[in-house]
Amino acid sequence: MIRFRAALAAASVLLLAAACGGGQDSSDASGDGPTPVKVSVIPIVDVAPIYLGDQQGFFAEQGLKLELQSAQGGAAIVPAVVSGQVDFGFSNMTSLLIARSKDLPLKVVAPGAGSTGVQGKDFGGVVVKAGSPITSAKDLAGKRVAVNTLNNINDTTVRASIRAAGGDAAKVEFTELAFPDMLAALDKGNVDAVQVVEPFLATAKKDGGRVIASNYVDTAPHLTIAGYFTSQKTAASKPELVKKFAAAMQKSLKYADENPDAVRKILATYTKIDPSLTASLTLPEYPTEVNEASLQTLSELAVQDGLIKQAPDVRDLLP
């Protein structure tokens, strides 16, 4: 949470600087060529649609030329979007809700990834090692659970799983670990359970780990987990750019959802996922619309678990 707050502070400074000056307007490309569009993404399964859409020419159809920039996480993406360094970014919805609660002017323009909605068959879940006495989310009370970022979407949704199973969510102890470090920590007994997403989920299953909760499924039906967003300044000053990007993303998301084999194939071009695992990965859904009800649930959980003091109006964040 400290890192995310620092990022929000940095974003506020960058926003002020952008208001006073401003960088190059990438939507005002000269000549008859395509308009360059800078998009900051994370090299994970969730963003496969934008790479597929670029490959299939969906952005070129809109007169756009994508410039995809890889970032380690949403904490770096939010200030880059707010300051205008990039036109669009990708982030989980809880991070965007926290940012909006801090009055950062963000606007979601397209969904990114969503839960499959199927227990035990989602692309993220809570895993324990073979032989663990933990059999359900209820048993996590009083246990140590690793999440990739404290006070964000994964610990709030794990708490939702615990509550749904009848456990005391206030008694779970969360530890922040990077996804690549989680399974080793679990094996050594440093933590009792880990919340992982693909490809770490497939790796855990391969090594005998057991999924004891599908935290995204437990949180809300067909939870929208992440999305593509821009700044309100960009949305107001470049409406045609936003419209064209959103249209290309809609087509890309639909294509990805209907062509899972293409998704698995393109992962090798931008991730470091072991090719031997791609066939066993559980892919997320790639919805074409944000599930507003699920976003409201995430907002309420953020308040309930103390991430924010007051829930922002989710409609202000949506397209």
TrEMBL record:
One of its GO terms (cellular component) is periplasmic space. It is found in: Periplasm. SUPFAM superfamilies: Periplasmic binding protein-like II. InterPro entries: Solute-binding_3/MltF_N (IPR001638), SsuA/THI5 (IPR015168). Belongs to the bacterial solute-binding protein SsuA/TauA family. CDD domains: PBP2_ThiY_THI5_like_1 (cd13652). It comes from the Bacteria. The keyword Signal applies. PANTHER family: ALIPHATIC SULFONATES-BINDING PROTEIN-RELATED, TAURINE-BINDING PERIPLASMIC PROTEIN. The keyword ATP-binding does not apply. It comes from Actinomadura bangladeshensis. PROSITE patterns: PROKAR_LIPOPROTEIN. The lineage of its organism: Bacteria, Bacillati, Actinomycetota, Actinomycetes, Streptosporangiales. This is ABC transporter substrate-binding protein. It holds the Pfam family NMT1. Keywords: Signal. Residues 36-259 form the Solute-binding protein family 3/N-terminal domain. Residues 1-21 form the signal peptide.
